[in-house]
Amino acid sequence: MFKVSRKSEYALIAIQHLARRARDGVTSVAELAQAENIPPDILAKVLQGLKRAGLLTAAKGAGGGYRLSRPVKEIHFLEVVRPFEEQLCVVSCQNDHGGCERGGDCTLRDPMTVLNAYMLRQFADLTMDMFLSPHKLLHGTHMDVAIGETSLGRLTSTAHPAD
Amino acid sequence: MFKVSRKSEYALIAIQHLARRARDGVTSVAELAQAENIPPDILAKVLQGLKRAGLLTAAKGAGGGYRLSRPVKEIHFLEVVRPFEEQLCVVSCQNDHGGCERGGDCTLRDPMTVLNAYMLRQFADLTMDMFLSPHKLLHGTHMDVAIGETSLGRLTSTAHPAD
DNA sequence: TGAACTCGGACCAAATCGGTCCTGTTTCAA
DNA sequence: TTGAAACAGGACCGATTTGGTCCGAGTTCA
Predict the structure, then answer these.
(1) What pLDDT digit, counting tens, does each position of B2-11 carry?
(2) What secondary structure does DSSP assign to A116-131, as a single string?
(3) Which of A82, A111, A153, B94 has the CB geometry, 3.0–4.6 Å to B131, for a possible disulfide?
């Protein structure tokens, strides 16, 4: 249920890449595609999407390419991912237009709304600079609590976590 | 990226339903399907899955049906969902067998591993009794922080959250 | 003028998903 | 003992989604 689409993965990689080469000016699609081993055509679409989202600036013509339009530290994880995820919500109840197929008596909607808000809240503070230095990510942030938790082992490993 | 499968939704509804009728003995698939407006055939599969996961107990034969095998309070959200979600991880990197298609130099894996652990940690404490009383869910738990957050409005609403 | 780019629509094949159907097997009750 | 009621589960199907390709058009620089 947490999996992001392939395009989102490419987007995350691209932002990472461009952040590292920030001072090299622009980077072309072909260049980035080869460096990160991503199909050029689809990467082009991804970068277009990121540009539309305001995260990248494009330079057309020969010698052109893409560049981050902000420092990495000011780019949020959810911003990078959203253009390629049709919905960021947990159940179909609340996708949009309030169009819950289950009618007004859906017992799932209320708890799910809270759950959804809770999740987004967890991600709200996550910015892309965390992706550049995993070690820092591991030990320097509020996320360090996630590591070494007993419950974590239970949940990530195999079948029945809570018995 | 957070959306659960339809089967997971049905599973959550079923657990809710069975929890409310806990003292009525067993509930048949047909009964539950009609009450909650779910296709009977597929609900049957869902309940089978929940039984295999150890959450339900089945009574075969005439007058049979399903029953929670534990109090709701001891059933975790992730337990209910996992049988119907092939992977609970964020990127294909870490799905299983370490089979990352991108080779050893995948710059996504390390940060994503942390992110993934972080997410699961957030859900580890969430039990199904929270689904029975949305009001309690709203105000009585650690989740109340999610409501009314400014960042929440930004992230859930429209296009560009962080500008 | 032409090459190297970004842009973006059209299209396609494969996989996934939600759902149906159909055939057991087990159990209870008449 | 028999049959109905219920769980168990495999086979299948159609629609949607997804990852990916192809191609044409506009832009800019050398």
Answers:
(1) 889 999 999 9
(2) HHHHHHHHHT-BGGGG
(3) A111
Q: Residue A6 has which token pair?
A: 């392939």
Calpha distance A107→A93 (Å, rounded) = 10
Is-contact A38 A10, C-beta < 8 A?
Answer: yes
A114, B134: Cβ pair inside 8 Å?
Answer: yes
Asked if B95 and B89 count as a contact pair (C-beta separation under 8 A), the reply is yes
User: Residue for token digits 């989102």?
Assistant: A8
DSSP state letter for B86: S
Give the closest residue to D22 (Cα–C1′): A41
CA distance A28 to chain B (A): 19
Q: How far is B110 from chain A (nearest CA, A)?
A: 6
The one-letter amino acid at A3: K
State the distance between the two ends of chain B, measured CA to CA, in whole angstroms: 22
Question: Distance (Å) from CA A48 to C1' C1?
Answer: 28
Q: Return the C-alpha torsion angle B6, B43, B13, B116, nearest 10.
A: -40
Indicate the burial class of A52 (C-beta count within 10 angstroms; 0-12, 13-18, 19 or more).
exposed
A75: DSSP letter:
-
Taking the CB of residue B3, how many other CB atoms lie within 10 A of it?
20
For chain B, give every domain's residue range: 6-132, 134-163
Q: Please write the tens of the pLDDT for every residue from A95-137.
A: 544 456 666 667 888 888 888 887 888 788 889 988 887 555 5
With cut-offs at 50, 70 and 90, classify the pLDDT of residue B100: low
Residue B60 (CA) to nucleotide C7 (C1'), in angstroms, measures 62
Distance A31 CA to C7 C1' (A): 17
Closest B-chain CA to A118 = B146
